[in-house]
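Intended use. Records like the one below are meant for learning the mapping from a protein sequence to its folded structure. Do not use them to infer anything beyond what is encoded.
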Amino acid sequence: MVSFFKNLFGWMTTDLAMDLGTANTLIYVKDKGIVLNEPSVVAVSTNGAGIEAIGMEAKKMYGRTHSKVETIRPMKDGVIADFDITNKMIDSFIKKVLKQYKFVKPRMVVGVPTCITQVEKKAVIDATLMAGIREVFLVEEPMAAAIGSGIQIHEPQGNMVIDIGGGTTDVAVVSLSAIAYGESVRVGGDEFDEAIMRYMRTHHHLNIGVFEAERTKIDIGSAYPQLKKLTTEVKGLNVRTGVPTSLTIDDDEIREAMKEPLASIIAVVLRALEKVPPELSADIHSNGIYLTGGGAGIRGLDKMLEEKTTLKVLIPDDPLLTIVKGAGMIMDDFASMRKVCIN
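Structure written out for the chain above:
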């Protein structure tokens, strides 16, 4: 009889976990795993007709719309920049995942940056509740990333996590189910893209879009010189002639373009290492540094960090998924893991 009611209640509700990111939103469903990974982009009608597209369909429209449609990225630097649009985006993603709301509204764990303010926390909670969630629990992204990377967070041992997302980079030392030291800088994948756009405009008089810059970063971006030279064709508008054109560039140029945001990330990591207590420093020396988030995919970044810190750097499998995996693991074992949540 107990199992009957347990199964019945399980059918009536589904607990979720979400990585509400600047670049992408990922959702984890209890007992099913990651079921959604979509760009955090919304296309809206400018004449008040409502939402035109959300997620991947909206990203395809980005920069290609007419005057009656506007594409928006409602998340900025890891937090909500446009509350109403974010609410509609979350609502759409949740409905897509659950197909239809069940009789009992679900609970959700959401990853947020370490630097988030009380006002920004409230915005995340309110937007999620308005989308039909019963209870919302926030977890700091480096904590979720640590859990998703397989770190034993309950142990009295320090582990450093660097999570590079689309809008922020979080550096944290995790011990005894809490963040012993944490610091965040609003530099992430978007800053790399903008740096590439500036470089192309300044050095080649070529205006390129944000997604062309992102593609270039993914194709040939690196933090450390590569053994084999990488090249790609970049397309945009020549600002001198006013004519669409393309040119071939190599990884040396893109590495030069990304030098400034990379330096900002290195600086915050070194500052964090200086401020960590000696006992935790000894643990980090033994355990190394875990590099997670989409920024972990930048070629040679682990090698650069090892050179600057003299510590080993570990990249878990699927670093982009560690936050949503960790948030999902919290929801799967909520009774014992609830203490890692910050609200």
